[in-house]
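Take a look at the protein record below and flag anything odd:
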Amino acid sequence: MARTAGQSDEQIRRNAVAAGWGETAVTEAIRTAMKSKAALMPRIVSPAGTQSATPELPAISEAAIGNSGKPSHVSRSLPEDYQIGAGDVLQINVWREPEASVPSTVVRPDGKISLPLISDAAVAGLTPKQAEVMLSQELGRLITGAYVTVVVTAINSKKVYLVGAVKTEGSLAYTYRMSVLQAISESGGLTDYAKRKKIYVLRTQDGRQVRLPFNFDAVIKGQRAEMNIALLPGDTVVIPY
């Protein structure tokens, strides 16, 4: 009753002692009341029907996720502004809730993924960090203090292209920091008819297309390493005949 009236534990203890109760008995009674309150705290029922108590955590925010000491939340090999796209493979981890986590899920063509407790969640166009905040808020309606980590385990939504005198023309799945030389190698290498010193990368910058030269022979000799640039999604490597 005293707790319901808003009295602190110290106020309750002083009043009880003044009324003639022994101090040891009062302390023990307060401790028992606290245990009873903890036992009545709501529990989350997982899809499998098991119960798990979850400590009350502060409201989720992007800053809280980044500095909370919880598991790392961004694919370390990707830039922070990388935007998730259809076909990308994601790993979704919900802190202390393995049954709500997903080890591998593919972003559908509509830009959404499915999670055990959420039917659909639109993640395309979001960075991994933004997806974490959004999913944490969505799951927070069902799981107290939900913390979500999102890791991009495979990039399939972005591509680079190779045309001309390579053994395999077409698209390559974009890999962060893939160089021109690596892209040529993954396409099987140059044909015998390639103009090795006349290769260039077509890239769209600020709405206009630019050419970035690449001298294959000079690069492999270590003479023009600056030409071996990191490709960006949408780049086209042109190898003239």
In short: The chain has three domains: 9-39, 51-154, 159-239. The longest helix spans residues 23-39. The first strand starts at residue 44 and ends at 45.
